[in-house]
């Protein structure tokens, strides 16, 4: 019996949620944590400084947390109920705009979790789009190093890229948008081609799956969305992938984010 207990494996649920303002949507977040119970939750768009991050509420929900905030914009946090997340990096190497909090990396349960909020890039063309592409190039370089290390890793969060026509309702309406730009899509494709597995698309190759719906024109009710939140798994972690998907439920709540959480389950 002792031997069986020692060798029994469990599933680890790692989720990502662009909360679109953590303090204004704290009730939504804590409700989701209680109902969905992710083991690790990566949050983006905190829109708060480090000093006003709601640490007490997060701890009351049963989670430890690390975070990197920014006034009014951006911001990322990693929550864990399976041990303290150990921070390893809080920006991409050589990021030209370190004042923007967009990347937070931590070790949790033997997995390196890269929590990211990539630049939107609009309007295109322009300096914001140039920065988006430059940031993605930095991500490409860093991701290659992670793969070279051989450590089990996941890059998860809001990539602000629509990878293909399957990932958007009416692609023709997004042709001028930075999220659907050929340059951004090509960089995402090149990133995956390094050896990363797009977990949701890998398990659901032909389905139309969305993670974001605008607030206007009943976009969510009509399912007129896009898929811009992704989870990329390193080869060693991809072998342990058991399931992945989108938790659409919170998107239907009142005063909620315009994103829905994504999640993967891996054998730990």
Automatic annotation (TrEMBL):
Keywords (A to Z) from UniProt: Hydrolase, Magnesium, Metal-binding
Protein family according to the UniProt entry: Belongs to the DNA repair enzymes AP/ExoA family.
Organism, as annotated: Sphingomonas limnosediminicola
Gene3D superfamilies from the UniProt entry: Endonuclease/exonuclease/phosphatase
Cofactors demanded by this protein: Mg(2+)
Domain Endonuclease/exonuclease/phosphatase residue range list: 15-259
Superkingdom of origin organism: Bacteria
Signal peptide range in chain numbering: none
Any Pfam family the entry gives: Exo_endo_phos
Name the UniProt record assigns to this protein: Exodeoxyribonuclease III
